[in-house]
Amino acid sequence: MAVSAATAGLMQRWVQVARDRQFESTRADLDDHMDRLEDIVGPQLHEANDWYFGRETRERGEELVVEGNRLLQERDRGAKEAEHKARRALLEFDERRTEQHSKSRTEREDLREAWEHEVRTKDNELSERVQNLLAVVVAKDTRLRKDHDLSDAPAGQYEMRPSKPSTSVLSGESSRVDGSTTGGRGVA
Q: What interhelical angle do 55-147 and 5-41 show, nearest 10?
């Protein structure tokens, strides 16, 4: 199944939010268990109760409490560092995205300007070519009028005549541009 980039990003975000919520829920449960354990066992582990629990058990319990507190502090410090890194990564991502959007916008504008320049250049070239061709047509028109003594005909209006001899299928005669005909097979 094909998934668009936006949909994939949204799905990844949802999974990350679900993981974060699960982590926070587990952390809250563990903190609650630690508090309950301390409430239940903590007040009973004193030197006066060594006869029942034993000195080694009490000392080991105190070591475990110290170790637990150290681990909690490390966990909190690690969580703060991870949160700081995540914020920094998001800021860097936003900066890069803004930079890329700006760069992309600049490139689009440059391409549009280059395209418009190319269109103007081609338009000017075509206009110049049309003007040159028009000048050639006018020169040929003038020469043709002069060569065929068409000074009384309006400029640019000529009678269209076939440039090649045409053969009449029925008569077998061909006509030439000058109006004369040939008999028989159209051979002059």
A: 170
pLDDT tens per residue, range 120-169: 999 999 999 999 999 999 888 888 888 877 766 565 554 444 444 444 44
Per-residue pLDDT of 96-116, as tens digits, reads 989 998 999 999 999 999 999
Nearest to 24 by CA among 92, 82, 88: 82
CA distance 151 to 142: 9
Residues facing residue 181 across a β-bridge: 175
Instruction: Dig out the tokens for 97 from the structure.
Output: 């995205």
Contact assessment for residue 156 and residue 141, using Cβ atoms and an 8 Å cutoff? yes
CA atoms of 83 and 91, how far apart (whole Å): 12
